[in-house]
Amino acid sequence: MNRAQNWLQGLASGEPLPGFPASVQVVDGELDNRLARFIAVVPDVHNPFARARTGEVGLLEGWGLAKAVAEAVDADRDGEKRVVVALIDVPSQAYGRREEALGIHQALAGAVEAYAQARLAGHPVIGLLVGKAMSGAFLAHGYQAQRLIALDDSGVMVHAMGKAAAARITLRSVEDLEALAAEVPPMAYDLGSYASLGLLHTRLAVDNAQAPTAQDLAQVRASLIDAVRDIGDTTDLRSRLDGEHRSASREVRQRLRSQWQEA
Amino acid sequence: MTDSERLLHSRSFVELGARQRARALLDTGSFRELLGPFDRLMSPWLPRQGIVPQADDGVVIAKGKLAGRPAVVAAIEGGFQGGSMGEVGGAKIAGALELAVEDNRNGIPTCAVLLLETGGVRLQEANLGLAAIAEIQAAIIELRAHQPVVGVIAGSVGCFGGMSIAAGLCSHLLVTREARLGLNGPQVIEQEAGIGEYDSRDRPFIWSLTGGEQRHASGLVDAYVADDVEAIRSQLLALLAAPSAQRASRHQWFLERLAQLGDDCPQLDAAAVRALYQGDA
Fold it and tell me: For residue A108, which residues of chain B lie inside 8 Å, CB to CB?
């Protein structure tokens, strides 16, 4: 069972909206007495694209996410901006011939575009990491959020590539990769190392990350509400730059700024 | 000019390094590099993995002019670590685009050109590369509201991974025949899906699906030009004055097209993709 689906059903009561691919579930619920759109990518064994049947973000998912978010932005153009919550358990992007041929990069760009435009239009956008958040799939589904919240659970993982594939591509053994990852925080697969990069707003310990209890749901709702208030009317990603292990990201920006004005 | 004269006068863009490319595109004499190699801002993560870092981390940032208008060029050096995005190189691109946004807010209409030769995230800096790419994407979208952001994929590395998504966010994309544009590199697809799905050594097959000519013929990029410095520069200037296709906002159009492929999409060849994506819905 997909974790995002479980959390979606717990956090937003109501039927998924029609008009989306079966792998993109969209439910409008409520958060702090404010309309909130919860969005999850879930497995669909009947997905027309065979390489995207186990929860991967592929062509339909990228464009479907774009539609889910862009329609909320359109609907709220003249009113209160609803909260947008991406529930994230995405094992990877879809790897396949159909995907490359039909421009999966453009489909994922569609999703990135929609989330970023929602943020810029004044929607509080939150990424809730309940499972895997891998690479291009995470870029398309959640990484444009103003705040990222992660369950403090060993099944929650952020990375650019799975361990086995990363070892092959960098010509290392999995053991060597693990040894390096222990010393190099951005390479590590554990959430604690990820947190040291400063990209998370909050980590939350829950009783059951797979199938949340009523108490887990209440706790996560409270955390989402806190994040919405923390976002206020900010629309950028600046809060991510303060991490212990991101000093180079800060130094580059600072020195670039001083040279920019002189050039 | 005859064809052979033209050939003799042409100057390859693909053969130039990142710094030369940036210089060749900007108006003569206007190139000013920021955070150049003498600033020695290098990857803090590569040395501890036994990999020699590079003094510019494989990214050249240059301010200058394009037909007189203020511009910033971010050029990725495909020759260093496959053009991969690490923390420093990624921050250089994101930071430059963020400063271009600030320029526009202050009444300076700075546009941007991205020279994309990259395999995507640098796996040795994995999560910081991924985070930087998310920030590059955010900055492209924000800058695009003010001034065009043009992506140029000349080859020979091509543009892959998270940076192919960034390419899909640009106001305009310009490619050559040497270019490839795709999310996943051929080797990774072959490893994940098998050689029957994707044969990474079958170069004609790979170019037929992801090469510059095919991407142009199927409407996924805006301009297709010969590998020639002057041709690329003049096409770049033309794109700066053209309206954007806003491809990333066309979810409705793409969903309609994909729906035509049925409940169990077959494998498609280049001609089938062109047929599906040509024309208006």
Answer: 165, 168, 183
Residue B281's pLDDT is: 41
In a domain, A258, yes or no: no
Calculate mean pLDDT across residues B233-255: 98
Q: Which residues pair with A149 in a beta bridge?
A: A128, A202
The CATH number covering residue B55 comes to: 3.90.226.10
Q: Give DSSP secondary structure letters for A140-192.
A: HTTTT-SEEEEE-STT-EEESS-HHHHHHHTT--HHHHHHHHHH-GGG--SHH
The pLDDT mean for chain A works out to 96
Count Cβ neighbours within 10 Å for each residue of A52-63 and write b for 16 or more, e otherwise: bbebbbbbbbbb
Overall domain count for chain B: 1
Q: In chain B, which residues have their Cβ closer than 8 Å to the Cβ of A246?
A: 87, 128
- Domain assignment present for A255: no
Q: Please check whether residue B189 lies inside any domain of the structure.
A: no
Residue B260 forms part of a structural domain: no
User: Which pLDDT belongs to residue A87?
Assistant: 98
| Bridge partner residues of B76 (DSSP) | B59
Q: Which residue of chain B comes nearest to A200, CA vs CA?
A: B131
